[in-house]
Write a structure and sequence with these properties.
Elements lengths: L20 H9 L2 H25 L3 H6 L14 H8 L8 H31 L5 H10 L5 H14 L1 E3 L2 E4 L8 H27 L3 H9 L4 H12 L1 H16 L3 H6 L9 H4 L13 H28 L6
Antiparallel strand pairs: 1-2
Length: 319
């Protein structure tokens, strides 16, 4: 006598047993199809930059008469455009001084707000003082204020100073000479502080409280805790915010145009629009000038992308 047995249900693949949604998404985005799509998007995204670079190396006659893709059949390269836009004393040239101005503006414009934001974020995160929450809310609310609304009051402050009646609290910073460069990076520091404090505060609040308590029990002051405990732990976050601030300051046009003063003290982005001339006849110089403007941020990002990705992912998961 035979006994009928019900067929056993097939077991689910091991990869899907107990798999969370995040693990499924990670497996999906790490597949070969996802990798191919990512490479294809990256290649398409790079085409305009490659075209800009190729055009910057072509003679002016070739730029005016044919597209950059003809270089694959008729290759003719020259550095004359770079020499003109960087070192020529004629109209549309001499950008080397504006490039130096951009570097001089960007370095303090990154270091100053990130340093002050790190100290302020630590104080708001781990020092208990009266009005801390209200101060944090006020700093967070400053992000809502449009940048354009602060340009005229800040410009008035730089040109007239700050005074109450006949008593001058802060003297005017005249809009000439080296002061204009200082004004630009001060403006960038002011505008970059609210977001930097907000982001760093979120990172520092997620640090283990046991580590802070152990440091206090060992007799460490707030200054020692900040330098020896907190800063090493938030280095990826500092790098991420530093990259963001670097890109904002380097690529800025409005602040540099407003506070930059004369042609000799303006940053590079503030003079790029003038290279073509009043009638647009010098547009062939724009590819070389544009590639000069983007090459430095591109190098900085490629060198620090490891810290950038770690900083973006820090605090995204707990445990």
């Amino acid at each position: 006598m035979s006994v009928k047995t019900e067929p056993r249900p097939e077991a689910a693949p091991p990869s899907s047993v107990g798999e969370s949604r995040g693990e499924r998404l990670r497996r999906m985005f790490s597949s070969r199809i996802a990798s191919f799509v990512a490479i294809l998007i990256a290649a398409l995204w790079t085409i305009p930059t490659a075209g800009l670079f190729i055009s910057s190396l072509r003679p002016e006659v070739d730029i005016r008469t044919s597209g950059w893709w003809t270089v694959f059949t008729e290759s003719n390269f020259t550095l004359d455009t770079y020499n003109y836009v960087l070192y020529s004393d004629s109209a549309g040239g001499g950008l080397i001084r504006n490039l130096v101005n951009t570097v001089v503006i960007t370095i303090p414009g990154v270091i100053v707000p990130v340093a002050f934001a790190a100290m302020a974020a630590y104080a708001l995160s781990w020092i208990d003082f009266k009005g801390r929450n209200l101060l944090y809310i006020a700093i967070f609310a400053l992000q809502v204020v449009p940048l354009q609304m602060a340009l005229i009051p800040l410009l008035s402050f730089f040109s007239q100073g700050l005074a109450i009646g006949d008593f001058t609290i802060m003297p005017a910073w005249q809009l000439d000479g080296v002061n204009t460069i200082v004004q630009v990076w001060i403006a960038h520091s002011i505008f970059g502080l609210p977001l930097a404090i907000f982001l760093l505060h979120n990172f520092m609040r997620e640090l283990p409280s046991d580590v802070m308590e152990a440091a206090r029990i060992d007799g460490a002051s707030h200054s020692q805790i900040f330098r020896k405990v907190v800063l090493p732990l938030v280095t990826p976050a500092l790098a991420s915010i530093g990259i963001f601030q670097f890109l904002w300051v380097w690529n800025d046009f409005l602040v540099g145009r407003t506070f930059g003063g004369g042609e000799s003290t303006r940053p590079l982005t503030a003079v790029l629009g003038d290279l073509a001339g009043s009638w647009g006849f010098g547009w062939t110089r724009l590819p070389a000038a544009g590639f000069i403007a983007i090459i430095v941020p591109l190098i900085v990002f490629l060198l620090l992308q490891r810290y950038f990705v770690r900083g973006l992912l820090a605090g995204s998961v707990k445990g």
